[in-house]
Amino acid sequence: MMGVDYQQLECILRVKLTMDNRRGFSTSTKKTDSSNQLLLQSFVYAIIGVFIGILIDSMDHTFTAYTMVFSMIMVMIAMLMISEFSVVLIDTRDNAILLSRPINSRTMTMAKLLHIAIYLLHLSLSLSIASLFFTVIDYGIVAGFLFLFMVFLSTLFTLFLTNLFYLGLMRFVNGEKLKDIMVYFQIGMAIIFMGAYQLLPRLIEVNDLYNSQIKVEWFTYLIPSCWFAGSITALTTSVYSLSSILFVLLALFVPLVSLWLIIKYLSPKFSQRLSQMDAVASKPEKRKTQKAHRLRYSDKLAQLLTQSSVERTSFKMIWKMSGRERKFKQTAFPAFGYIFVFIALMVVKDFGNEDKIASLLASKRYLLFIYFIIFAAFAVCMNIIYSDEPKSSWFYSSMPISKPGDILSGTIKALLAKYVWPLYVIIGGPILYFWSYKALPDLLYALVSITVITSFVTVMQSKALPFSKERLSQDSGDNFIKGILMMISAGLIGLTHWGLTYIEYGVMLGLPIMLAFQYLSFRYIKRINWKQIED
Predict the structure, then answer these.
(1) Do residues 451 and 518 touch, judged by C-beta distance below 8 A?
(2) Are 473 and 394 in contact (CB under 8 A)?
């Protein structure tokens, strides 16, 4: 009746779902051949849903409890849709197979909609299964069915908002830029989850949360999660006031209208944008101007920090490629956000207490802040050797390079100059402001220490050329041991610095020694030969 070829639809969906089941988490650093990835994801989301569902049983105010539950579920669905499913949603490679076949546009559109609907159903049910359990236990089976229906409606509305988000981005950026934005969104989501897990329990009093109540005001009707919470509250409390009737009407009609808009306008528009986005490009003049600016900056740094032509070329190559490799950014960049989370954890407990703040400023605790940078340095240096296309590293052996150590030296210097030292300036600036000039010797010593430990540990953990090893070759057990050794080495060098602060002029006397270690470390790296390089 809808003009859809059912056999073609079934065939397309079967292949899409099979591929979904083989695709791991987008934040995974290791590929896998497992054919049960959807089951694994469902289990992980169900565990997360337990922490959401506990609110129903713990909070006294029903409307507030369900408002928070639906808010969390909708936010999680939207974020996971953008971070996990965007890889599949904006992938146009299947057009090479489908567009050359006698498949009409309605069949392809319906296949895409059903694919999204199945994924959303799996996602929303996994997140809400614990909330459903608590709803049935506390309010009965009828309330449980209503809760499931409201989850379905809230998912439809979230899909509508997600479509608007994608279409808005596609209007201003092309395909490659959109994929870059998705990667940064995934990085941001990882940092937000980490920060929320660590900071929220310390900022929120549990008793205040459980006893809190949301009052119905005029702006409450503009909050989608309140619509669904108000509908369930009306059933469980048997109070059908004007506000509850309005919530029910909004919960029923707005998602259904949004579904109609998706099918009628947004989905065809999305498909049109998707087919055109690879052809859309930015203005060439602007791109050339920005590119020239970046090259001048990296060229100056390369001339300043490198000695041989091979080292200089390696520096420039890593400077460019590290900014283009999405998987590298996806695995390494979250560590930069975690550093600020750890710093906030150490400061937030003293915030608001003048005595504790004064004690903090009188202490040497800023040494911990600055040495947290080591974790970001390890993250970028450990991940720079991996690539999804390791065979493209054949050009290393095709060139007349006598000392591959120059490549490693240029790589480390590029990563330090592009990622580690700017982070040092961002953290060191506030330290110099709050602790004044007295912290300057410590900052200089820490900068050299971080450079030395990064170069030493990077080479010792793996003598591999950048982007030359496949991610499948990553050994989680080996990485865990390396991580422990790195943390121990970072702790030892930090403790050494802390001990020198108790010796008069100890830091300034130790600075020349660390500079000598820095010179020796790069001298050792440059002497690495081809026999020492890992395949």
Answers:
(1) yes
(2) no
Can you give the pLDDT at residue 535? 64
Q: Which residues, at least 6 apart from 289, have a Cβ–Cβ distance to it below 8 Å? A: none
DSSP letter at 216 equals -
How confident is the model over 100-128, as pLDDT tens digits?
Answer: 788 887 787 778 778 877 888 888 899 99
Distance, in Å, from the CA atom of 222 to the CA atom of 278, rounded to the nearest integer, reads 37
Pick from 384, 391, 410: nearest CA to 325: 384
Question: What is the distance between the alpha carbons of residues 3 and 9, in angstroms, rounded to a whole number?
Answer: 11
* Region class of 467: left (phi > 0), else alpha (psi between -120 and 50), else beta: left
Distance CA 353, CA 357 (A): 6
Locate 342 and state its tokens.
């750890």
Q: Which residues contact 534 (CB under 8 A, 6 or more apart)?
A: 462, 463, 464, 469
Lookup: tokens for 331: 């695995």
Q: What number of other Cβ atoms are within 10 A of residue 314's Cβ?
A: 27
| Residues of the chain above pLDDT 70, percent | 82
Domain ranges of the chain: 6-25+34-276, 291-532
Quick one: which of 284, 297, 285 has its CA closest to 323?
A: 297
Cα angle for residues 495, 500, 504 (degrees, 5° grid): 160
Which amino acid, residue 122? H
Tokens 């020239």 correspond to 292
User: What are the φ/ψ torsions at residue 103 (nearest 5 degrees)?
Assistant: -115, 125
Q: Average pLDDT for residues 11-27, to the nearest whole number?
A: 76
Contacts of 483 (CB under 8 A, 6+ apart): 378
DSSP state of 420: I
Cα 322–Cα 310–Cα 374 angle in degrees, nearest 5: 45
User: Which amino acid does the sequence have at 348?
Assistant: V
Tell me how many degrees the CA angle 454-458-464 measures, rounded to the nearest 5: 155
Q: What angle do CA 496, 370, 350 make, to 5 degrees?
A: 105
The closest alpha carbon to 318, from 194, 407, 441, 405, belongs to 407
Which residues sit opposite 470 in a β-bridge?
387
Q: Please give the sequence-ordered ranges of beta strands (E in DSSP) within 413-475, or none if there are none.
A: 469-470
